[in-house]
Amino acid sequence: MAPRPSTFYAGVSIAAAIVTVGLKVFAWKITGSIGLLSDAAESGVNLLAALVALWALWRAGKPADATYPFGQTKAEYLSSGFEGLMILAAAVAIAVAGVERLKNLQPIENVGLGLGITVVASAINGGVAVVLLRAGKRLRSMALRADAQHLLTDVWTSAGVLVGVLLVKVTGWLILDPLVALLVAANIVWTGVRLLQETGHGLLDRAIADDEQAALAGLLERFHERGVVIHGIRTRAAGPRRFVQMHVVVPGSWSVRRGHDLCEEIERDVTAALPGSTVTTHLEPLEDPASWDDGGLDRRE
Q: Which of 238, 258, 269 is nearest to 246 (CA)?
């Protein structure tokens, strides 16, 4: 069975968001809880974010062409950035609603039914989040991981709201409902900020992950043992793709064919070790001092 594309998982997220929004709005209507209203609002943001993720994954999946010679995989960072902004917007909306309710406390009704509906919606979100996290890791998709983090944020929001509503039911202290909503708003801000930070790193062409750099260094060490010098190594990640470039220094007496075959071997091995990579090698003669000028990176001692 062929692996499912990333857009399939975005579709699953959209379907789950539609169901959970409906459930949570109904729970809010029958209880009047401002906490449940804030929970429903965040699920509405989840739906919008999932739609953006679907668009970003569709764009990211397009092959490179004359207009976009390096592909469009950075579209995933647009999605993760949007997710981060929407989480922060949801936090603000929840906080505003909580403050308004503090000024006008109201009783909560039909607590049992409302909480039961919310638990079902949270279970759906939690299950979909786990699926998206696994798919995002396997497909190296920032958009899917961001969507999963957003869903997990929704689950935590629901958990907080459930605690608040139960406390109101047990104690009769109506003020606990809006206070819990404010605590939830403060808690999810961190997730939004973290997603924005990860988005910024991607858009600024951050190097590939440390474990991948270690794997690359170990692979290239085998060529160093054969007397080949590789330096000026630069890497960057763009969504699920990686880009690797390096200088390959060999004796000037080598033929063009021999040097070319070596570079082809290096590129094949790197691509095999880091699937989805575009590898660029620059062949240089050992005897030329200019061969060691790589902008200060990995300069030979």
A: 269
